[in-house]
Amino acid sequence: MSGDTSYMNKHLWELDQELFTMIQDEKNRQKECLEMIASENYTSLSVMECLGSCLSNKYSEGLPNARYYGGNEFIDKIEILAQKRSLATFSLDASEWGVNVQPYSGSPANFAVYTAVVEPHGRIMGLDLPDGGHLTHGFFTPQKKVSATALFFEPMPYKVDPDTGLIDYDQLAQSARLFKPKVIIAGISCYSRVLDYKRFRQIADECGALLMADMSHVSGLVAAKVIASPFDHCDIVTTTTHKTLRGPRSGVIFFRKGVRQVKPSGEKVMYDLEARINAAVFPSLQGGPHNHQIAGIALCMAQAQTEEFKNYQQQVVKNAQALCTKLQSHGYKISADGTDVHLLLVNLKSVGLSGGKAEFILDEVNIACNKNTVPGDASALNPSGIRLGTPALTTRGLKEHHFSKIADFIDAAVKLGLEIQKKSGPKLVEFKRVAVEDFKDQIEKLKNEVKDFALGFPLPGHDDY
Ligand SMILES: Cc1ncc(COP(=O)(O)O)c(C=O)c1O
């Protein structure tokens, strides 16, 4: 390509077959596979058009009408539109809530919040990762501060009750009284029940903490009013926009404005979150906003206000519940005994197949999910469960009876896994070897059934890439 700029206007498929084939392979995998990773979804063709637009070319450091570069007349309009629609999607009044739509994704959004409101080595409390929290809620192990949120801040995790799988709010309250965190994080990556934001608020008030919800996983359900809104009780709310919200891969921070508290003397204490959070996003942590993503946010927030979106989110939950019921009828134990949301956690301890082996065999038969710790697991490296989510497949149009069929596929795969394990013994490497060497035909047969089933449902986006 050296010296020749004619390539600048060629299509990817004309220019780079090697790369294009890889993208096509991924598209085919998405078509042929049952995508059950709870954090994934298929975004719309129109969001993809925003992501592939000229907006990717533009630098616009700063905020609308206060930029460090020229030429931002239209970029300003787009960002203001994304802000307005984000507030409208969650029925927020602009005099009480502000929003920053510039975080590159969920992790930078969370880090920006702590940067804004917690001093270095200040204290935060989040749900422990093995109990269903996220890395960016302060994950560390005895050996390592795994997340930078544990390196630069001092986290203390709270836990779920190992018997019920439900958050132990009493224990959280007790720890918070002693630890006195600056921020309590109410958010999950793997927890199938609705959060009690009112209780979180009481606990935060008791120790003077700010309450932050990370609604990344459930923001689509909140937008559609299928589950309770964190906005009624929180000071700050962060979200990704690519999970249940079905938008571009990006992040958003909402923050309260106006009066925080009226003292007994009548003196008003005002929120000071807006300037601090905006400055934390830029210039503290990020540079130029990703304007193509911000346009995608504007679009997905408008889509999230439609009746169709509400129906979609209701279906997501119905599907998760149908999957849950059928798996329970096959004898599987579901953590927290069911689901109110888009995901469920299958506890495989009593089945006798590890989460890692289940994930592997499911992947072999074209069902994508992830191994996950279940309450009481001793090792995060060898978890006993799998997390299953319904958002992506619901986007493809699957209904309750389809998920009942999927439960049968999962059951068949787990039973095949147990057969393999009888021959391989407990080691995962051996299990994988025996599976591909000695159970090739059984795997192929089930895989083809799953593939034929999956191909019956369309995928949004470009046809073949
Ligand atoms: C609750 C929660 N917060 C934050 C994130 C981080 O988002 P990202 O992967 O976009 O950085 C995730 C991602 O899975 C999440 O589940």
List key phrases describing it:
alpha/beta; 7-stranded mixed β-sheet; Aspartate Aminotransferase, domain 1; 465 residues; 17 helices; 14% strand; 4-stranded antiparallel β-sheet; binds pyridoxal-5'-phosphate
Task: Describe what you observe in this structure.
The protein has 17 helices and 17 strands. The chain has 465 residues and is α/β, with parallel strands linked by helices. α6 links the parallel β5 and β6 (154-158). α7 runs parallel beside α8. The two termini are 23 Å apart. 48% of the residues are buried. Pyridoxal-5'-phosphate (PLP) binds next to α5. Keywords: Coiled coil, One-carbon metabolism, Pyridoxal phosphate, Transferase. Residues 429-456 form a coiled coil.
